[in-house]
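Notebook B, p. 112. Complex prediction, attempt 2.
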Amino acid sequence: MSILVVGSVALDSIETPFGKKNEILGGSATFFSISASFFDKVNIIATVGEDFPKKHLKMLRNRNIGTDGIAVKSGKTFRWEGRYEYDMNVAHTLATHLNVFQDFSPDIPQNLRNSPILFLANIDPDLQDKVLSQMNNPKLIACDSMNHWITGKKGSLEKFLHKVDIFLLNDAEARQFSGEANLLMAAKAIVAKGPRSVIIKKGEHGVMYYSKREHFIAPAYPLETVFDPTGAGDTFAGGVIGYLSKAGKINDATIRKSMVYGSIMASFAVEDFSVNRLLDIKMPDIDKRYSDFKKLTRF
Amino acid sequence: MSILVVGSVALDSIETPFGKKNEILGGSATFFSISASFFDKVNIIATVGEDFPKKHLKMLRNRNIGTDGIAVKSGKTFRWEGRYEYDMNVAHTLATHLNVFQDFSPDIPQNLRNSPILFLANIDPDLQDKVLSQMNNPKLIACDSMNHWITGKKGSLEKFLHKVDIFLLNDAEARQFSGEANLLMAAKAIVAKGPRSVIIKKGEHGVMYYSKREHFIAPAYPLETVFDPTGAGDTFAGGVIGYLSKAGKINDATIRKSMVYGSIMASFAVEDFSVNRLLDIKMPDIDKRYSDFKKLTRF
């Protein structure tokens, strides 16, 4: 199949206990698409400013990622500045400059409206709905969200989620959205609100998949060093959706495997700043970690 | 085989968001032995005061748990008072009255010195060493510890761990003992200090086994309600050691299965106060959860 991802392409300035980097490539659509590109064809819908380095677009195209949907607008590219403490679990936002992303409201090019798989990264749920309304019945609709929209646009999000097959969010967001402290109760409550299934991302503690029919849990791939967790969630989503697209069918077995591939992709992403580690690996590296993960968890 | 456990038998007063109970049966040896008794023969070495209710000893004997090594001393039984907040992850100790447990320094009865498996629950590492010195070459030596001994008797603990096959501790203790924030690094550092293997208990986030040759990770059995986490760690250890004793051989495959059985036993323990839930279940209930867990985690 092929995947359309709608989200951000950004320049991040990141500080972790391992160092500091300014204006490195970031954004949800970036991490997602590079991760998914190991498995299948991806096209990006996003917007950047005139200042966005051409080399990044070239890198994406060299990976066979479709960039025709990345609009270059007059103004500056979305910038995010963040800092991580020693435990790496919480991102502290130092500054957010939305710039051209502020007015992001894409018209999906005609040739991309037939994409069978749609991933709506973390954007305003009203915008997620507006994008979906332009599509011609995708077979699989997945989306992410964040605390900002759960707080400020809960009604819109809940309405939109009825149209969604897979809703991805992290553990803190799942607790906030459901009002349940226990994650299994949270997953049940979220699925009762509309989406066909939910994936709760627990960072270093792994992932949980929940639908009315199926339930899957997996630990995270254990790493000795987490260098920069930025983009881990979107990279995970890219692995999940990328694998499902390549598999060509969505059932219990492919969903379980997709989540392990997602975890493996995220395990690479956090080993360096930006998408550097993802650009460094090849499919055999991914398969090796998949096989290691099987050995680590079998009983 | 058969197991000798050395630890506490206590009376707990516990407050959780679900209620409050006074002077209920607790103690590391209690949770461990009831959990292990589902798998194999266990004998307890402990001490209680004259006030310890006879009904508890009778209950243990009715489960074929050997209580001849529980010395009844003049004085009062060890009492612990604790409280859990809504998230249930941290026990707040309100009071500890060691009473007769203060002078616990057991002479192991001759007929128990040949026990092939020894579990030394959380007691002074000097006392753990003293107990071990009385034993006739057990085939498997496992022990627990806690922050109190890591802080106050690190030298004794490190010396003793060279004699230990499996060292069990929780994630916070593993970080404290090793000085490593990352749990994989912590596990490596701990094994480098002496024990043949380490099991790091991460509560609701599962478990990690690490030795120089093998590495295993598993999520926790997901529960909708955690009623009272007291004793979960010792119940886990009882499932691990109980299964290994029943299996009769200790290798990579039996260790992996033992850890899943340990997690299953702990999942029952936390569903009610004290050992109530453990007294309520039968082997088919355990096998059912084991099979559910396999379905939940396979990919």
